Amino acid sequence: MHELALSRAILQAAIAHAGGRPVNSVTVSVGALRQVVPDSLEFNFSVISRGTLCEDAALDMRLIPARLSCSCGECWTLREPVFLCPRCGSGGASVVDGNQLSVDYIEVEEEQCTEPR
Amino acid sequence: MHRTKVRVASDVLDANTTIANANRADFDRAGVRVVNLMGAPGAGKTSLLERVLIGGLRDFRAGVLEGDIAGSLDADRLSALHVPVTQLNTSPGFGGECHLDANMVRSALGEIDLPAIDLLVIENVGNLVCPAEFRVGEDARAMVSSVTEGEDKPLKYPLMFRTCDLVVVNKIDLLEHLDFSLDRFLENLERVSPGVRHMLVSARTGEGVGALKGWLEGVAGRESERA
Predict the structure, then answer these.
(1) How many helices (H) and strands (E) does chain B have?
(2) Residues B190, A84: C-beta atoms closer than 8 Å
C-alpha cells in the first residue's frame, strides 16, 4: 500500500544521481521488516518513471531476510513477525538485518566521447 | 554507448527524514512537543482526542493538526472544544495520499500558532501501513487499535505496532459483546513488539482516558532531547 510513495522516493534518488543520463537499472535493498510487496513496488515504479530518465530502468530488488540476535547467543531468521527469542523467550532481541530500504546504485547509459583528443 | 555504475547508497526515506528533522527543530525552538497519533479508520482517534481534550490537559496547552484525505469533519468536531485545530488535507480534492509525510506537515507549519501551545497532536490519516514509514518530526508515536478490529492485527501490521511508543486499545466497553479475546490480542502485541506500553480505554464511557491524558501530559513535559 505504501509502495507508491516509496517508489516515488526511489525515483527521486535515482534521478538525483543520474546526472541527466538515462538510467538502465536501479538496485534497491528491501528488508523483510519493511512490509514492502516487491511486485507492487516494481509496478508502481514502472508507472511513475514514465517520461523520466528512469523510463526504461529495471528495478532490481535485493530482498533481505530479517535476522535477529539475542543476548543469550541465539541468532535467527524471522519467519513470522514474532520478536521473542525462540531459545530464552526474551523480548530484548535486536534486529541485525531486514530493516533496510535503500537505493544502492544505479546503472546509467554513458555516451561515448566522440571528439578525439 | 556504455554503462556506468553510480553509487547512490541512500536510504529511500532520506528526503523525508531530512524534512522531519527540520520540523522537529522548529517544534523544539517553539518549545512544542509533538505526538504522531495513528490507527485504522474508525479506530476512534478523533473520539479519544475529544474525550482527552474536552477538559484540557493539566499545565499544558494542546493543539491538533488534523490529517485527512479530504474534508474537515474531524477538525470541526475538535474545534467545538475550543482547541486550536489546523486541518491538513492530503489532496485538494478526493483520492489524496493515504498518510502524512514530513513535507505535508511542513507545509502546514505556518498555519499553526506554535507559541500558543505546548503539545501538538498530529492525527494521521487512518491507515495501518503507510503512516508507520513516514516520520513527520514527532517526539513520540501512539496508535489506537480498537477491539472491533480483531486480535490478529499486531501480527498483520507489525511495522505499525513496532514503531509506536504507546498502543491504546479502544472500545473496551464492547468487549462483552464480541468474540475478541483481549488476552490473545495482548499476547500477539507482546510477540510483535515486546515490552511496548499499552492502555485499555473506552472513548465512549471515558474509562481509561485519564491514563492517556497522563501519557500526553508526560510527553508535553519532556525536556527537548536536543536542548
Answers:
(1) 8, 8
(2) yes
User: Higher confidence at residue B25 or residue A4?
Assistant: B25
Task: Give the model confidence (pLDDT) of B35-87 as tens digits.
Answer: 999 999 999 999 999 999 998 899 999 999 999 887 888 888 888 888 999 99
Q: Do A104 and B7 touch (CB under 8 A)?
A: yes
- Interface probe with A: pick from B8, B159, B198, most Cβ of A within 10 Å: B8
Per-residue pLDDT tens over the stretch A61-100: 999 999 999 999 999 999 999 999 999 999 999 999 999 9
DSSP code of residue B30: T
CATH of the domain at A43: 3.30.2320.50
How does residue B224 score in pLDDT terms, banded at 50, 70 and 90?
low
C-alpha cell at A22: 538515462
A102 touches B at CB < 8 Å: yes
Query: Is A19 inside a domain boundary?
Result: yes
Inside any domain, residue A84: no
Q: Name the residue among A5, A17, A90 with its Cβ closest to that of B6.
A: A17
| Residue A47 falls inside a structural domain | yes
Q: Who among B2, B9, B194 is closest to A84 (CB)?
A: B194
Which domains does chain B possess? 14-220 (3.40.50.300)
* Minimal CA separation from A70 to chain B, in Å: 13
Ranges of H-type helices in B80-130? 102-108
B83 burial (CB, 10 Å; 0-12 / 13-18 / 19+) is buried
The pLDDT tens digits for B80-139 are: 888 999 998 887 554 567 889 999 999 999 999 999 999 999 999 999 988 999 999 999
pTM of the model: 0.90
**Is residue A88 situated within a structural domain?**
no
Q: Which range of residues forms the domain containing residue A38?
A: 3-66+98-108
Size of interface A-B (CB pairs under 8 A): 108
How many domains does chain A divide into? 1
C-beta of residue B9 within 8 angstroms of C-beta of residue A104 = yes
A 6-45 residues inside an 8 A Cβ radius of B = 6, 9-10, 12-14, 17-19, 21, 24, 28, 33-35
- How would DSSP label each residue in A69-85? E-TTS-EEE-SSS--S-
